[in-house]
Specification:
The chain has 188 residues and is an alpha+beta fold. It has helices spanning 2-13, 82-88, 96-103, 154-157; strands at residues 25-35, 41-50, 54-63, 71-79, 106-115, 122-134, 141-153, 168-182. Helices cover 16% and strands 48% of the residues. It has a single domain, classed as Porin. It has an eight-stranded antiparallel beta barrel with strand order 1-2-3-4-5-6-7-8.
């Protein structure tokens, strides 16, 4: 009988959410580099997530001498549809890093403001995908992030031909960051 109770308690202590529901609000801060047309840009990234499923992001990129665009500021929404769907239906793999990595798949949509060298900021649409690889077996902690996407300026969206990398461009960001979870009304 005691063996069966011990087994039940062992199963009860398994956290298949890997800490993600211990806090309502996740705050992730990261820094890295963004590869784009002509030259890389240094990148800073801040993300606020609710229950590891949806949130907002803000990104700042500062280019070097030959970067085009020289600067970019982006803000938008992020949706991570896999975590709750997999967790509620019991489809987590049981491997913390694999589960956290798979569930980090994010769809991103937002506004960007790009500044070509010697010009003022221009509005743009940004769409992308993101993934984060955790270093630990918990949602909190160090991670490596990869975000890829595209930006289209207002001129490119209006169908104006020509333009350069500031009008339409692909980008890929590689970052190193830290995520912290904070308890709110649901996690308490």
């Amino acid at each position: 009988m005691t063996g069966a109770l011990a087994l039940l308690f062992a199963f009860a202590e398994v956290d298949s959410a890997h800490g993600r529901i211990e806090g309502d609000l996740g705050v992730a801060v990261a820094a890295g580099i963004t590869a784009g047309p002509r030259a890389p840009r240094a990148t800073g990234d801040l993300r606020l997530r609710y229950l590891s499923t949806a949130g907002v992001f803000g990104t700042y990129e500062e280019g070097f001498a030959s970067s085009e665009p020289r600067r970019a500021i982006a803000t938008g929404v992020e949706l991570r549809p896999l975590f709750l769907a997999r967790w509620v239906t019991g489809h987590e793999l049981g491997s913390p890093r694999a589960d956290l990595f798979i569930d980090s798949l994010a769809l991103e949509l937002g506004a960007a403001f790009v500044q070509p060298d010697g010009a003022r900021f221009r509005p743009a649409l940004q769409a992308g995908l993101g993934l984060e690889l955790p270093f630990f077996d918990r949602a909190e902690g160090l991670f490596a992030g990869l975000h890829v996407g595209a930006r289209w300026s207002d001129a490119a969206l209006a169908g104006n031909a020509g333009g350069g990398p500031s009008d339409r461009a692909l980008f890929a960001s590689l970052t190193l960051g830290w995520q912290e979870l904070f308890a709110g009304p649901i996690a308490r």
